[in-house]
Amino acid sequence: MLSKKRKLYIAALKAAMYISTGLTAALVIFIAVYVFIKGIPNISWELLSTKPSYISGKIGILPDILNTLYIVLMTLIIVLPLGVGAAIYLTEYAKNKRIVAVIEYAAETLSGIPSIIYGLVGMLFFCQFLGFKTSLLAGALTLAIMNLPTIMRTTQESLKTVPQSYRDGAFGLGAGKWRVIRTVVLPGCVDGVITGCILSVGRILGESAALLFTAGFAHALNGIAEGLSSPGATLTVALYVYAKEQGEFGIAFAIAAILMVLTMLINLSAALVSRYFAKKRKF
Predict the structure, then answer these.
(1) Tell me: the pLDDT tens digits for 136-146?
(2) Of 272, 88, 106, 119, which is closest to residue 198 (Cα–Cα)?
(3) What sign does the dihedral 236-241-246-247 (CA atoms) show?
(4) Model pTM?
């Protein structure tokens, strides 16, 4: 039998847990509802499908949407091969565990560095030293460095979930190292890799500080080739510009509502992908 003091202690912990959960859920719901109430009335087809006109004073965010798409695609093209390849090497090929531990520690340190520092380094290295100037390409390279530790560590943890017996069985059948990784290991952990990539897209969408230094905040409408070599504002940067520089809080809340919807869709996609591959693995 539990003593009275023990029962009170357990009840107090349960109450604290419920209160903390309720406050967290209430805070999230409040922020989402507040942003949607302020932003949705300001969203229109004209806003989404036109570019800003300084002559007529009309505001459109089509260039910002396209710039966001360009920078997400370019960042993923750069960071995915590097992050997944580094994770495969560290988990499957590297022999010196001390070096692996040092690299993992460096990756965890990089993931904790404030994004404003990445922006400063990206501006000095990509924009000035390499001569890319202020452009979406410089912003994408900076975001690739920012997201590299996340992709690498997520892929590493996914690779470690594949049982060693799978590898041993494939080796016993005469398969080579790369064939085992390609046909046994990667299919067994693809859900974790894809989930990490999807969550990285969310971080790319939400980044603004690093892009202010590297990508700029122009609202020009360009194709993908010209756009990557030109300065451009993503949705988060445009939100900052409209709210802080121009005082257009209605437009800022409209962009915030769009970003909230995109974030929810990204998190939902990550959950659905994990569930799909979990079910597929059972059968």
Answers:
(1) 999 999 999 99
(2) 272
(3) positive
(4) 0.85
